[in-house]
Task: inverse folding
């Protein structure tokens, strides 16, 4: 039996209504494809994505910055407590086969960079605009998507072609 795909959804712990709704749809689309959703386990985009996946019958993993589950959102099936603070962003990025960023602040930017350093496909919805075409990189940069369906489709297309 093949291992399930894992997709990390990254974004800020506070989200606009537009970001929240997009993240819910991203979570749903990931679950519909039978993949496991990984996130930072807290609120905002992380909660919204986990909610969407949970409502669609998917499995959710939250990699938490604290040493306990007291701030974990209610849609996390498997909590992983780290006590690492923002350093847990490495684990969130490395644990997914691909990453989808929705909005985001500096923590999201770090996760995008960690994902790219591991040659993982990174797709973003209204997130950091990174012009990596002018850089001499030996890997593809992040790809923009207009909505949740396109973002999930692009990350899976990238995974299937690699």
Result:
């Amino acid at each position: 039996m093949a291992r399930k795909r894992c997709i990390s959804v990254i974004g800020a712990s506070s989200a606009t209504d537009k970001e929240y709704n997009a993240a819910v749809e991203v979570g749903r689309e990931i679950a519909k494809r039978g993949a496991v959703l990984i996130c930072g386990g807290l609120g905002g985009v992380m909660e919204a994505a986990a909610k969407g996946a949970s409502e669609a019958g998917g499995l959710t993993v939250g990699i938490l910055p604290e040493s306990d589950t007291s701030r974990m959102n209610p849609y996390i099936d498997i909590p992983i407590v780290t006590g690492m603070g923002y350093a847990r962003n490495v684990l969130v990025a490395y644990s997914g086969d691909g990453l989808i960023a929705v909005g985001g602040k500096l923590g999201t930017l770090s996760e995008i960079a960690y994902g790219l350093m591991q040659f993982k496909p990174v797709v973003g919805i209204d997130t950091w605009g990174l012009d990596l075409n002018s850089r001499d990189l030996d890997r593809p940069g992040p790809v923009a998507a207009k909505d949740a369906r396109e973002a999930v489709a692009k990350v899976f297309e990238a995974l299937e072609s690699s």
Q: What stands out?
A: The mean pLDDT is 94. The chain has one domain: 6-156. Strands lie at 6-10, 36-39, 60-64, 78-81, 98-102, 122-125, 143-144.
